[in-house]
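Field: sequence (string)
Field: structure_tokens (string)

Example rows 1 and 2, in order.
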Amino acid sequence: MRRSGLMGERLIALFLLGIVLFTPPFLGIFNVATVTAGIPTFYLYLFSAWLALIVLVALAAERGGHLDVAPQAGEPPAGEESDASARGGEG
């Protein structure tokens, strides 16, 4: 089964997640004068969220619009054409 708009939907959802993660009210939660693992908490959050978005976009782009499901009975596997269409419709 293949859904053509799935990758676009995922990318739009990731864009919206990025907007939420980097809005000033949300950033204010981490803008405190503490240090985590020797790194200011604000910078740790900024670069962690940025890295997470990059990884999620890469995963979404790699998977494309394909769902990982088995084909229905009588359907050729994804990416393969049926014998009739491969021969140009000859019978």
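Row 2 begins here:
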Amino acid sequence: MEWSEEEWFSLAAKAAFLHERRASSYVPAVVTSEMMKQVENRMLRWKKNVANGNDSLFQRRLEWDNLSSATAANLLQITQFAGTEL
């Protein structure tokens, strides 16, 4: 199977680590209600895994990385490289 350049960019953007997503080369893809449900589920799993579901512990964990809940949620969205479209 041959992949197009667009498909490679899409794969790389989806696989990006949080610190990579914070870089200016990544931007959120078009936001849909399905994507927002995925973000909510990812945030819940993250909170469960790092703070046993405890809100205050999770907020402390986010603060260690200088993140707010809103910023963390934005980072969990499907992304694309700036200047490309999925």
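free_text_note (row 2): The chain has five helices and two strands.
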